[in-house]
Amino acid sequence: MTVVITGAAGHIGANLVRALISQGRHTRCLVHVNSRAIDGLATEIVQGDVRDLDSLCRAFRGAEVVYHLAACISLSMDDWPVLESVNVTGTRNVVEACLRTGVRRLVHFSSIHALVQEPLSIPVDESRPLVGSRRYPPYDRSKAAAEIRVRRGIEQGLDAVIIYPTAIIGPYDYQPSYFGEALLLLAKHKLPALVTGGFDWVDVRDVVVGAISAEANAPCGARYLLSGHWVSMCAIAAGVAEITGVPITKFVCPLWLARFGTPIIKGISHLNGKRPLYTDVSLRALKSNRHISHDKATRELAYQPRPFRETLLDTLRWFEENGQLDRSPRLKTGGSR
Fold this sequence. Notes:
Largest sheet: 7 strands, parallel
CATH superfamily of the largest domain: NAD(P)-binding Rossmann-like Domain
Strand content: 15-25%
Shape: globular
Radius of gyration: 20 Å
Helix content: 40-55%
C-alpha cells in the first residue's frame, strides 16, 4: 500500500514519513524544492507542486492514502495571493487528484487557526465554526477556505478526515519553523525581548501518532483537534534557560505595547534579510484562546500529548545534534542541576 505525503519535507512531514517507514509502509514523498528533511530515508521521492494538478495526479497514481500537509505559513497580513494559491487552490487540486486517481482516504491537515477562537472563556472544540471575515489574518482564512474544499470533496464521494494541530514543536525541524527559530534565539541568548501571552503547543510526534490513528480508525468526515499544553512565552524562556544554562531574556513587553513596535521590527528584519517573529499576526495569536480541547481525539483515537518539558528538551537536543546549537553538557542531563 502506497502512502503519499505532500509537504513531506516540512516539520510535520519529516516526522510523519519516519513514523510511516518505521511501520513498514511504502511512502511516496511529494517534494517541491527542498528535500533535506527526508534525504537518505527509505522513501520514494517525486517532484511536484500542489498548484499543478497534473503533477498531483502523477504522484497519487496507485496510492491508497494521501496525507496533505503542504501549505504556505505566514505571519503577515499581506500574503493573501500566495496563501490562496498554495493553501486554497493547492488543496482543491489535491482533492481533485484524489478523486481522479481513486485514493481511498485523504488525511487533510488544517490548523487551529482555521477555527473561530471566541468566546475565549469557552474551550475550543471541533464544533467551532471556520473563520471567514477579513478581520482574521490571511493564513487563518486560507486554511479555513482550504477545509471547505475538502468538505466539498467529501460531498463528491471522497473519504477524508481533517486534523487541526495547534502550534507545532519538536525534532526534525530542519528549516527551522517560526517557533523553532525563536527557541534557537532563546537558547543562544539572542532574543532581545519576550512578550506576555502564550499559546497551546503540541509535540509534532504526538500529532503524527494522532493523524495515523485517524487514518486507520476515523469515520469519513471526522474532524480532530490535536492540542497539547498552553504555555506562556515567559515560561518557555525559563524552561530553555533551565535546560541549557543560558541566561533568560530579562525584558518582557506587554502585548499591547509590543504591537506599537512591530513596524520597527519588520523594517529591521527586512534589512537583515530575516523574517520577523513578532508581527501583528503572531502577537494576536499569543492572546488567543488558552483552552483547546482534545477530548474527542482522546476518546476516539486514544490521543495523549506528552508533557511539554519533555518536548522542549527533545527539541533542543535535536537542534544540538543537528549542529544548530553549541554542544552543552546540560542538554545531555536534561538540564538537571
